[in-house]
Design a protein that fits this description.
About 80% of the residues lie in helices and about 0% in strands. It has 4 helices and no strands. Helix 1 packs antiparallel against helix 2, helix 1 runs parallel beside helix 3 and helix 2 packs antiparallel against helix 3.
Length: about 90
């Protein structure tokens, strides 16, 4: 068991970070002013989401050794697939 936690330790840490950064991205997206142009709104959404994509891509590239690590990889893939919020809800 200790060996699995050691190997999945990076995934566990990154999974927590993914959830934190995703929540921050959601808050930033929710704070976009209603009067923003469509182009500006799209740019703000992309900017808010980019850190989450980077973390998710890194997580997906890692090998998981246990169930927790696999679950974190599933959440990261859900972000990349656009289904993250339905996965964590």
């Amino acid at each position: 068991m200790e060996n699995l936690l050691q190997h999945d330790g990076e995934l566990i840490l990154l999974g927590r970070f993914l959830d934190k950064v995703a929540s921050e991205a959601e808050a930033n997206i929710d704070a976009i002013p209603a009067e923003a142009s469509v182009d500006d709104e799209c740019a703000m959404i992309d900017a808010a989401s980019m850190p989450v994509y980077v973390i998710a891509e890194h997580i997906v590239a890692l090998a998981a050794q246990g169930k927790r690590g696999e679950a974190i990889k599933v959440r990261a893939q859900a972000w990349l697939d656009g289904t993250y919020w339905s996965e964590v809800a």
